[in-house]
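Entry 12.
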Amino acid sequence: MDRTAQLTTRATEHAIAYDPPARGDGLHVRAARVLAANWTGNATVPSRSLYPHQWSWDSAFIAIGLRHVSPLRAQTELETLLAAQWGDGRVPHIVFNPSVPLDAYFPSPDFWRSATAGRTAGAPRTVQTSGIVQPPVHALAAWLVHRADPVLSRSRGFLARVYPRLAAWHRYLTHRRDRGGGGLVSVVHPWEQGMDNSPCWDAPLARITPAPDRSFRRADLDHGAAEDRPTDLDYGRYVRLAADYRDGRYADGEGEFAVEDPAFNALLIASEYALARIAEELGAAGTARRARAQRLTAALVERLWDPAAGMFLCRDLGGGQGLVRERSVSGLIPLMLPGLPPEIAATLVRTLRGPHFGFGPGPGDRTRLVPSYDLLGEAFDPHRYWRGPAWFNTAWLLERGLRAHGEPQSADALRGAVLHLADATGFAEYVDPYTGEACGATGFGWTAALALDLCHDLRRQPHPQPYQELVKGAREGVSSAATGTFDTSDEGGDRR
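Predicted 3D structure (tokens):
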């Protein structure tokens, strides 16, 4: 058996039988135990109790952490998700585990009816999924997973297999979801953006007639306090939107809810840069993808940047509403982009440190972790889902952004806060931004995974990290792209 085959065999055995050692009490070990406990054999659930299926952007973040304990498991995580991709390119936000009882989570497979209602859009017949999507972190995750063990990745043909699916996923978003006509992707349901209960959705949701209370049962209240979860009124509107989309056979047309969101589009841009690197690894050119990322960044600035707010805002495309005058952490996430104008990046850093979010490296900080919503906003609630609590995935994204834009002191402070609070709370789903008190589920997948990733960063200092290498490559690509003319079509090899 040659060396490559030996590496693949050992990695396979490790992925299947992985069990973190009982000895030792370091954060790295505790985080790895959470991921092992949430592993189902081919994917990782966010939480055994509250979220017992595979979630799309959760799996991308989880793969980023898993790459440090088992690169093969991290590859398998993404491959399992992408195997449930629809024919039109969409990656569904939930892939359902058939062994989980229907009443364990709502909306359940019998609500979404993917195999029948999604038939026209190419929903898979062998697995049940939801019909909406979540933020496109997947190409970024795939590149980082590849970089964790390039020999294993190449021996398995990992990038060659996922690249066409990732390209089709991006093509779906850019071709089918530009509802505003300005080049940005729109979400058609709050669940798609990932920050489900943000006050940014209050105005767009106000136009939606909620589903009757007795038409659904909220399984989330069996595992979480009602005061921490969305209200029944908001949940009824979520159900109505999802049911209408399903009844329209998941066609992307003229639904009542359409919002351009900064974080969703920023993650698409970051993943476009990652797809460029993946294409180059496979022997193709990445210039067209970098040019696309550059155009998307320009559209993001043109359509969603608000100088008065000092950050990006959501744009409501329904009812002529325009920009939504609510400050959420989503509007800070574009800080992670390498092509962001320097003056905008500097303004975002000031907003992060200012009174609306209150996080910085100094002793006068008002928050222990970056809140999900404006501290001064009327809707702020330090415990209610996405209306104020701090989340670990958004902190990870901001840490990457601070480091990318030359703010190492703030990045170090944020990394330290994530590591301390993740460990102290038993890897909580989210925390009170003032006190650090745990909220939601504990043993949460992406909290453990991203803490593991930041912990690994500390071990590797001062060597450059893979995301920083990606940023450097993206900046070089943007610089060269400024002198050329590019085809706006997909690169060769994208067709499935």
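Annotation: The chain has one domain: 27-461. The CA atoms of residues 267 and 278 lie 16 Å apart.
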